[in-house]
Amino acid sequence: MTHCNLKCVFCQNYPISQMGNGREITIEKMVEMMMILQKRGCHNINFVTPTHYMPQIMKSVLKAREKGLRIPIVYNCGGYESLRAIRVLKGIVEIYMPDIKYSEDEKSKKYSNAEDYFSVAKEAIREMYRQVGDLELDKNGVATRGVLVRHLVMPEDISGTKKVMEFIGEELSRKTYVSIMAQYFPAYRAKEYPEIQRRITRDEYKKALKYAEEKGILRSWIQDGILERT
Question: pTM of the full predicted structure?
Fold first, then answer.
């Protein structure tokens, strides 16, 4: 979806999220596109940074279901979501895929213009988990329902990984699937901030994985694929 409710200075998709690149479509066209994707064998309909288009999305999903849409709806968001909005989505969304970008207000304000990011994200993600629970996979390993959390490891631990893993392990579930992402690279306005003008180091990434392990996070996607700890 064009635009975003965050203003991340390092956004790797900034032409879409910050500059508004995209094209306008009608609800009828969106319904048609969803039905085509299902016919082609797609596993789900994935809406990315969708919250500011919620009314249109809900209307299109309901119309598509009337026409026979059966594959899951994925709500792929930045985690900075209104609790009220997430509650409205109950019954519409089968899979929530939120980011948890930061655990420190100072960092979220500086790099994403959202000084209350962590408190807002925690409340929203608790509600997502309450609605759909742990991620469920079918016999082919395809997700059908549940929550999958993503966390981008940042240089100098700007993302506050330890507190993020504490929240997931202690307040959600140790069975939560977590994608611990290592693909950060300086993009968009990152050149204005010397501390994020580089990729992360191997040691920084290993430390992030250690935090997850210490909190008993059983399922995490890492660079080499999915690692399941028992």
Answer: 0.94
